[in-house]
Design the sequence.
């Protein structure tokens, strides 16, 4: 078992006061007080890499600063185990995967070993994602409260894998999903907790204009020409070709440039192919910039988002869509597809514009480029919407409330 | 012995006679001098006269006696060395007596006058008295050293350095004391005043000392402001006495988490049917979540049923009818639920259920689980209330205005109940009770209520 040790300096809870206000932090402290004496153990599959590890690395120290004894441990597994869990992950996302009975057996075998070796302690076991889901077998022996936190979109899962997982999930006291669509019919309590962004992270903090200009210059972008951008990995589900088509419609009437920036997923052989197709589609068009951004380039991503005039997210399918949250937080007018968690973030004509087609996307971008005041109004609302609903402080609040509500079944709890 | 007396009687008699003469003169002079002072003080009515007379009357005689003794030694036949020694001894006793007497007099007069100063805080009499005592003792010691021809320069130097160090070390204290004097003579602040500092800190002045001002904030915190800082900042003071409630208003806050019911509707029929069965907390969530989630928007979006019917089902007429349901009209969630179902059923009976939501765009029924917490903020009167109201979170205002009225079946907001029952402020209570909170953002409500209270206490 690995235990998390935080070597690098993290933001202090007090640093969020200028962003969310003193009273919000006071309320977090008040909630944390009510959990005094309780130990919360988070368990996931890795300390580094991936969204879950990233959010835990920020949340656990902040919970500790609030006075909550939150801990973090990881399960162990060999390559075969993680190959199987990757297949499970894809299958739960709705992708066709060839999963054999041996795969299920391998999963159970490693899980059994983890159940024996993991040092369980704490009053609440907070288990993240499918990899450690089978640890629930220890509940009968240990007691306490057990929560399964599902970070992935399981709205259309492979039935066989979901049934396998469901047997474990039903033994938990509660499950947590990121969007209503992701939930399933379950006999246990299900909570809705959206993911969040950290406004103090490199990806979201305010950048000096010199930094933004230098990034634009590095990628050969014209800072005086409006930028339409989609920042997303190169994946068919993000519909980059659709974005180019929409841009071409806009470009007929408005002088602007398109930036398609992102990385390729190492575990997805398709993404190289997508990038190739996108490059081919954009070749010979000087206003279309295809930028392959290396990993760990948070400042560059941030700079491109801050420099954009309009940000698009024309996904065909989307989990929660944290890139949309990032764009909204930067006060940018957003044009996004009405899929997945985007619908929670972009309320049509209030915090951005939703679209259902290439034509719809093009029309929305044109409206925003031609009506700067309207675009600015949407951007202002967008930032406030994120401040209220999708920052890490709200995430902390939800986790604290979740832990408290496990001990109080009523709809109104007086503490 | 007799022979020695016979030979030296004159050298003994002269000094004795001189001493006796001084005693006689001293008695006479004291009577004349103090009778004069008595008459003078009766005439000028000086408040320090009693102290002066009591403190100096006995020493005056001692001083005359010592002068007489000194004169007697001068006329005696003692050797020059003995005369010098005796003179120094007598001089030393004289200086000690003089120093002690003037020291006592100065301290007593100081105490008399400091006690009479009408300051908002007790003066540091002991400190000042001690400083005066030290000053007199230092002067006395210097004079004694001079009499005994001891070098005084190193002592003066050491004292000067010591004084400088002390002044530097306690410069903040000294600044505070001078600022305290400034406050005292200006009669600026007194205990019980409600004040607000430039920095935003505010509360009732609970104590004023020569070093700092203590302020009790509405959340119970005790704030200490050094006098030197206090005199440099902008202070707003409110002095109008206000009615205090026997039971203070305790501000609560309410935080909520969303719990999925697992129920979802893909058309209007399912929407109406499920709506009949779900708990009140579900109806409450879908008719109120927008208030918090979109609290920055004016006007705010309608309830979530209306939004879904418009965005997903595309029935703008029904969406408009649902938007127009005035939540403020209802005093229970049950009544509100009935109204929503009636509006949907009315449309279904006329047009039928024509449209179905795309997969993934169904209406998910969510319930709100509220956690209600006490906050440190409380108020006994309108002034405390308004200052606490400025500071509490929007969640707290939301709880007292929206949740308590409808979900907790109180029928009216908590603020109005307390204004009326706790402070007998019926008019103010009514003004706030009739405000339709659904037409404002929470921050707007905060500003409006503050404005109404400020007008009342102006």
Sequence:
């Amino acid at each position: 078992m690995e235990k998390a040790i935080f070597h690098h300096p993290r933001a202090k809870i007090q640093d969020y006061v200028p962003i969310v206000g003193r009273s919000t932090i006071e309320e977090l402290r008040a909630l944390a007080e009510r959990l005094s004496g309780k130990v919360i153990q988070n368990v996931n599959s890795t300390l580094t890499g991936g969204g879950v590890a990233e959010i835990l690395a920020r949340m656990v120290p902040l919970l500790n600063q609030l006075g909550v004894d939150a801990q973090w441990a990881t399960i162990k597994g060999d390559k075969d185990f993680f190959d199987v869990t990757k297949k499970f992950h894809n299958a739960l996302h709705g992708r066709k995967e060839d999963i054999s009975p041996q795969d299920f057996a391998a999963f159970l075998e490693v899980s059994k070993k983890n159940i024996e070796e993991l040092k369980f302690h704490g009053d609440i076991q907070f288990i993240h994602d499918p990899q450690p889901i089978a640890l629930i077998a220890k509940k009968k022996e240990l007691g306490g409260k057990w929560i399964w936190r599902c970070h992935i979109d399981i709205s259309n899962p492979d039935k066989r894998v979901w049934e396998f997982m469901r047997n474990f999930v039903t033994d938990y006291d509660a499950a947590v999903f990121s969007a209503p669509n992701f939930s399933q019919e379950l006999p246990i309590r299900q909570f809705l907790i959206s993911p969040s962004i950290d406004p103090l992270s490199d990806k979201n903090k305010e950048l000096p204009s010199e930094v933004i200009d230098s990034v634009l210059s590095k990628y050969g972008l014209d800072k005086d020409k409006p930028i339409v951008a989609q920042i997303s990995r190169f994946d068919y589900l993000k519909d980059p070709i659709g974005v180019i088509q929409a841009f071409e419609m806009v470009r007929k009437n408005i002088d602007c440039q398109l930036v398609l920036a992102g990385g390729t997923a190492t575990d997805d052989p398709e993404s190289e192919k997508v990038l190739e197709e996108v490059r081919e589609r954009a070749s010979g068009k000087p206003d279309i910039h295809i930028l392959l951004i290396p990993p760990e380039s948070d400042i560059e991503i941030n700079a491109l988002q801050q420099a954009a005039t309009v940000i698009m997210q024309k996904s065909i399918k989307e989990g929660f869509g944290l890139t949309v949250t990032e764009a909204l937080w930067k006060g940018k007018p957003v044009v996004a597809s009405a899929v997945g968690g985007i619908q929670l973030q972009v309320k049509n004509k209030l915090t951005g514009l939703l679209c259902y087609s290439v034509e719809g996307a093009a029309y929305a971008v044109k409206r925003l480029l031609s009506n700067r005041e309207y675009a600015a109004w949407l951007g202002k609302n967008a930032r406030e919407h994120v401040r209220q609903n999708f920052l890490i402080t709200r995430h902390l609040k939800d986790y604290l409330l979740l832990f408290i509500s496990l001990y109080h079944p009523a709809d109104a709890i007086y503490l | 012995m007799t022979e020695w007396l016979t030979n030296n009687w004159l050298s003994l008699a002269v000094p004795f006679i001189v001493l006796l003469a001084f005693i006689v003169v001293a008695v006479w002079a004291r009577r004349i001098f103090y009778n004069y002072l008595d008459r003078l003080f009766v005439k000028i009515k000086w408040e320090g006269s009693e102290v002066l007379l009591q403190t100096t009357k006995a020493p005056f005689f001692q001083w005359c006696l010592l002068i007489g003794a000194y004169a007697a030694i001068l006329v005696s036949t003692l050797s020059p060395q003995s005369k010098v020694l005796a003179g120094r001894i007598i001089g030393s006793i004289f200086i000690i007596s003089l120093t002690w007497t003037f020291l006592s007099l100065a301290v007593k007069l100081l105490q008399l006058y400091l006690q009479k100063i009408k300051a908002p805080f007790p003066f540091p009499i002991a400190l000042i008295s001690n400083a005066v005592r030290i000053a007199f003792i230092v002067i006395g010691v210097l004079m004694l050293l001079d009499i005994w021809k001891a070098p005084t320069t190193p002592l003066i130097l050491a004292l000067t350095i010591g004084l400088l160090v002390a002044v530097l070390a306690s410069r903040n204290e000294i600044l505070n004391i001078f600022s305290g004097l400034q406050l005292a003579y200006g009669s600026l602040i007194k205990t019980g005043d409600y004040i607000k500092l430039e920095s935003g800190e505010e509360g009732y002045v609970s104590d004023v000392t020569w070093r700092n001002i203590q302020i009790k904030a509405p959340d119970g915190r005790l704030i200490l402001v050094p006098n030197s800082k206090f005199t440099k900042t902008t202070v707003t003071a409110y002095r109008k006495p206000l009615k205090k409630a026997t039971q203070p208003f305790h501000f609560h806050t309410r935080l909520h988490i969303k719990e999925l019911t697992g129920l979802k509707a893909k058309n209007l029929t399912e929407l109406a049917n499920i709506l009949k069965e779900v708990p009140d907390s579900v109806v409450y969530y879908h008719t109120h979540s927008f208030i918090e989630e979109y609290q920055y928007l004016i006007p705010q979006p309608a309830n979530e049923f209306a939004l879904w019917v418009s965005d997903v089902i595309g029935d703008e007429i029904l969406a408009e009818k649902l938007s127009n349901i005035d939540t403020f009209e209802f005093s229970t969630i049950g009544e509100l639920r009935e109204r929503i179902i009636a509006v949907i059923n009315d449309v279904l009976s006329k047009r039928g259920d024509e449209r179905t939501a795309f997969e993934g765009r169904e209406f998910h029924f969510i319930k709100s689980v509220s956690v209600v917490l006490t906050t440190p903020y409380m108020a006994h009167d309108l002034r405390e209330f308004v200052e606490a109201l400025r500071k509490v979170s929007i969640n707290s205002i939301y709880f007292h205005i929206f949740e308590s009225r409808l979900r907790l079946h109180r029928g009216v907001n908590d603020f109005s109940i307390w204004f009326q029952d706790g402070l007998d402020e019926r008019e103010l209570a009514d003004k706030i009770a009739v405000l339709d909170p659904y037409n404002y953002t929470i921050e707007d409500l905060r500003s409006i209520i503050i404005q109404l209270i400020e007008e009342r206490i102006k």
Remarks:
- Strands of chain B lie at 194-197, 202-208, 212-216, 222-226, 235-238, 249-265, 363-379.
- The two ends of chain B are 99 Å apart (CA to CA).
- Chain B has a mean pLDDT of 86.
